[in-house]
Amino acid sequence: MINWGIIGAGNIAHRFAESLAQKKDGRLYAVANRTLEKAVQFQERHSCEQVYANYNDLLNDEQVDMVYIALPHQYHFEWIKQALLHHKGVLCEKPATMSANQMREVKALAEQQGVFFMEAMKNRFVPAFEMIYQHIQAGDIGDIVKISTSLCRLIPKANTSYHYLPIQGGCLLDLGIYNVGLFEPFIKQPLRVSTLAAVLDENDVEVYVKAQLVNAEVEVILETAFDQTQLAEAIFTGTKGRIRVIDFHRPTQFSLEIYGESVTNFDYPYLPDDFSGEIQAAMTAFSEGALESEQMSLQSSVNCITLIAEIKQKLTEGAFINLASDV
Ligand SMILES: NC(=O)c1ccc[n+]([C@@H]2O[C@H](COP(=O)([O-])OP(=O)(O)OC[C@H]3O[C@@H](n4cnc5c(N)ncnc54)[C@H](OP(=O)(O)O)[C@@H]3O)[C@@H](O)[C@H]2O)c1
User: Fold this and answer.
1) Are 307 and 180 in contact (CB under 8 A)?
2) Which of 33, 71, 92 gets mutated to test ligand 1 (max ligand atoms within 8 A of its CB)?
3) Per-residue three-class SS string for 13-78
4) What is the mean pLDDT of residues 183-208?
5) How far apart are CA 100 and CA 107, in angstroms?
6) HSE (CB half, 13 Å, CA atoms) of 82?
7) In this structure, which topology does domain 2-120 adopt according to CATH?
8) Ligand 1 binding site (Cβ under 6 Å of any ligand atom)
9) Where in the chain is the domain with CATH 3.30.360.10?
10) What are the residue ranges of CATH 3.40.50.720 in the chain?
11) Which atom of ligand 1 is closest in space to residue 94's alpha carbon?
12) pLDDT tier for residue 326 given thresholds of 50, 70 and 90
């Protein structure tokens, strides 16, 4: 039985705890929050043995095998490192880190300590994604020539936590990381930013981004936003066919078109929820003594944040078409 500790009793930690409660080989053992009061409230909803008023006390508890880091993005890096140094297996919310250098440091530390680490890129661990992956790997749509991804969710500023803070805010780190998480396994050479259009808010936090990314083989469109809601859709266009995925950040359905032959719709419900697959994958890999998961490797996390950071850097440099000034 794997004893889990949760670091940060915020919004997403509740979803994790609900999903973990369905597992036979893992259980919620402890939760830590900056205030004991909130940790106790969490324990009242999700029963566990220990509550802590700081994250270090949880890490010093020898009964804790794995930790789930559910803090705002900016604090992931520090607590990933602390957890690895305490020899706890780590599942950390996306984006695991805020920069490529940070993620490279995490990779090196996990390898040096010989401790499991995985970024909680939940869309890679749902049955629908596994089927999409198999279709693409089997060559069902031929060679991929274009991947379009759009994940735009209206997130009003009032009562948000980290979303609009200059240091860690913006739609790229929060939502765009899912776009990259989806297409990264199918990209064989580094992508470069070809064209970039964006809208920044009054604090220079990006609220809309549309990036065209290219290498010699493929064109990728990454669209993401906090200032509007659109159908969340990804389309993989290949030389023989096309796969269309709705809600690709947590997909259950997709269609497979073979040009001139057929269009087939597939429905793969969660088993039983969208967190379950990533939790199971992390526990299985940890139990087997693996350092990383096959579906979301350490290098995969480096690749994902490298691309997001490159786009963010272009925004910082002003190297983009400012759509706000066109309005
Ligand atoms: N997988 C998904 O579907 C999904 C969905 C949403 C978010 N996320 C990810 O989950 C992470 C957390 O999001 P959330 O909405 O759960 O965040 P949140 O509720 O705002 O905060 C989570 C926790 O972080 C703690 N915290 C806030 N500021 C801190 C600081 N300065 N130092 C130490 N701890 C601090 C909070 O403690 P207090 O209660 O004391 O403030 C709280 O316990 C984000 O990285 C996000 O990308 C994932």
Assistant:
1) yes
2) 71
3) HHHHHHHHCCCCCEEEEEEECCCHHHHHHHHHHCCCCEEECCHHHHHCCCCCCEEEECCCHHHHHH
4) 98
5) 10
6) 17
7) Rossmann fold (3.40.50)
8) 8-12, 33-35, 38, 70-73, 75, 93-94, 120, 122, 161, 174
9) 124-275+305-326
10) 2-120
11) 47
12) low
Q: What is the mean pLDDT of residues 78-86?
A: 98
The CA radius of gyration of the chain, in Å to the nearest whole number, is: 20
So what's the pLDDT on residue 159? Answer: 85
- Whether residue 161 is predicted with pLDDT greater than 60 in this model: the reply is yes
pLDDT tens for each residue of 20-74: 999 999 999 999 999 999 999 999 999 999 999 999 999 999 999 999 999 999 9
Q: Using CB atoms within 10 A of its CB, is residue 162 exposed (0-12), middle (13-18) or buried (19+)? A: middle
Map tokens 């919620």 to a residue. 28
Our mutation pick for probing the ligand 1 site, out of 6, 12, 165, counting the most ligand atoms within 8 A of Cβ, is 12
Architecture per CATH, 124-275+305-326: 2-Layer Sandwich (3.30)
pLDDT digits (tens, 9 = 90+) for 262-297: 999 999 999 999 999 999 999 999 999 999 999 999
Ligand 1 atom closest to the CA of 174, numbered from 1: 47
